[in-house]
């Protein structure tokens, strides 16, 4: 039922649910027969959990630098990255800003390359009045704690490509693990705690505690220790639980309200930042209708701002902290060399982000803007 409702909301024929968004991407790569020595193109400003599935299937990630304004793949640099080995382009709609899908699709189609849309940060965003996730052969989503809506953990693939859907269906029927009773119980308790106790002023403390407890194995973390390595754990390919599905259905019932709230808060940040002499993070393209997961702002003293925000109870996001966030192993393990994507590296040094979720209100937004404008804006 959850899968059907999700597909219906986005106007896709099929949807497939997974334990995490990165598992959804892994399923797509397998279904598209991506394997040894193939190449997958993606922006050099992403989460390392997007890169791991590429490595898991034996392919090589190829990185494209980003546009400064949207943080998305610079399509003017895309063609030069394509080789005879290129099999997939991942169009990541960063922070919720839709990619230039016309150009990406034109380039991909002329070369016989499949396009996958990374919609993990872009639930409800539109490009030319069409929902992102419906341009390529498939789109995938994440429902982890800091995403547009959360089921604790969770991921989804949507597609209207019947051949691809049949392949995914076969994979999920024959090869997918199910979460353990312990994992489901722990995750359900975490969801209850999240709903009752996590507010803007408690977020920084909660995140620190969550990371500590994850390392100790006390909670079901967003990323296990093994997921920071380019080698797949045996039980990585996992489906969702009934508890997550029930939670997802409840979230879908409120998704239009969620989207409207995010748009309202983003416009408020635009107005408040402009009044303080800061350049707002506004998408000026006529064909783009973003629904942001977080509101990005570039500042000169990122580390100082994050430290002071934690002390002041300001909910200030740090990602992406590096081109492959939050890398804990050498970048070379993921075929990335420093200097490869200079705009992405610059954004990593300066970009922070402000909350837009349902617990953010006008008072919170004003407090956030008063705090962030105490620092120098970076280009």
Overall description:
- By secondary structure, the chain is of the alpha/beta class.
- Helix 1 runs parallel beside helix 8 (242-253), helix 2 (21-31) packs across helix 5 (162-174) and helix 9 crosses helix 12.
- Helix content is 39%, strand content 15%.
- It is built from twelve helices and 14 strands.
Q: Provide the helix percentage.
A: 25-40%
Give the tally of β-strands: 14
Structural category: alpha/beta
Query: Over the alpha carbons, how many angstroms does the gyration radius reach?
Result: 20 Å
Class of one domain in CATH?
Alpha Beta
Going by CATH, what is the homologous superfamily of one domain? Type I PLP-dependent aspartate aminotransferase-like (Major domain)
| Percentage beta strand | 15-25%
For the terminal residues, how far apart are their CA atoms? Answer: 46 Å
Determine the mean pLDDT: 92
Largest sheet: 7 strands, mixed
Uncertain ranges: none
Strand order of the largest sheet: 1-10-9-6-5-2-4
**Dominant shape:** globular
CATH topology of one domain: Aspartate Aminotransferase, domain 2
Named at the architecture level, the CATH assignment of one domain is 3-Layer(aba) Sandwich
Helix count? 12
Oligomerization category of the chains in this entry:
single chain
Element-by-element helix/strand order: HEHEEHEEHEEEEEHHHHHEEHEHEH
Fill in the keyword field for this structure:
379 residues; alpha/beta; Aspartate Aminotransferase, domain 2
């Amino acid at each position: 039922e959850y899968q059907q409702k999700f597909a219906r909301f986005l106007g896709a024929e099929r949807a497939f649910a997974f334990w995490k968004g990165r598992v959804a991407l892994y399923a797509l790569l397998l279904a598209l027969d991506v394997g040894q020595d193939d190449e997958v193109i993606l922006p050099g400003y992403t989460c390392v959990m997007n890169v791991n599935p590429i490595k898991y299937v034996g392919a090589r990630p190829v990185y494209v630098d980003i546009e400064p304004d949207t943080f998305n793949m610079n399509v003017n640099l895309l063609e030069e990255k394509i080789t005879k080995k290129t099999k997939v382009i991942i169009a990541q709609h960063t922070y919720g800003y839709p990619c230039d899908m016309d150009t990406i699709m034109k380039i991909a189609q002329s070369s016989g390359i499949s396009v996958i849309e990374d919609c993990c940060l872009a639930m409800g965003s539109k490009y030319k009045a069409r929902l992102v996730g419906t341009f390529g052969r498939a789109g995938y989503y994440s429902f982890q704690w800091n995403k547009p809506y959360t089921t604790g953990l969770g991921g989804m693939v949507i597609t209207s490509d019947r051949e691809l859907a049949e392949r995914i269906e076969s994979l999920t029927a024959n090869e997918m693990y199910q979460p353990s009773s312990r994992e489901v119980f722990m995750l359900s308790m975490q969801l209850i705690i999240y709903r009752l106790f996590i507010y803007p002023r408690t977020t920084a403390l909660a995140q620190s505690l969550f990371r500590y407890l994850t390392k100790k194995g006390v909670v079901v973390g967003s990323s296990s220790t093994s997921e920071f390595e380019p080698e797949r754990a045996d039980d990585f390919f996992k489906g969702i639980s009934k508890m997550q599905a029930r939670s997802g259905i409840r979230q879908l019932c409120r998704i239009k309200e969620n989207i409207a709230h995010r748009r309202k808060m983003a416009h408020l940040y635009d107005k408040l930042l402009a009044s303080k002499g800061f350049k707002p993070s506004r998408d000026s393209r006529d064909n783009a209708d973003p629904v942001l997961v977080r509101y990005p702002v570039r500042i000169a003293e990122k580390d100082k701002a994050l430290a002071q925000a934690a002390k002041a109870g300001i909910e200030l996001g740090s990602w992406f902290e590096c081109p492959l966030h939050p890398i804990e192993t050498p970048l070379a393990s993921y075929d990335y060399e420093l200097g490869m994507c200079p705009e992405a590296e610059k954004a990593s040094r300066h970009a922070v982000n402000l909350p837009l979720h349902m617990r953010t209100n006008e008072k919170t937004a004003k407090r956030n803007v008063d705090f962030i404008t105490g620092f120098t804006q970076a280009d």
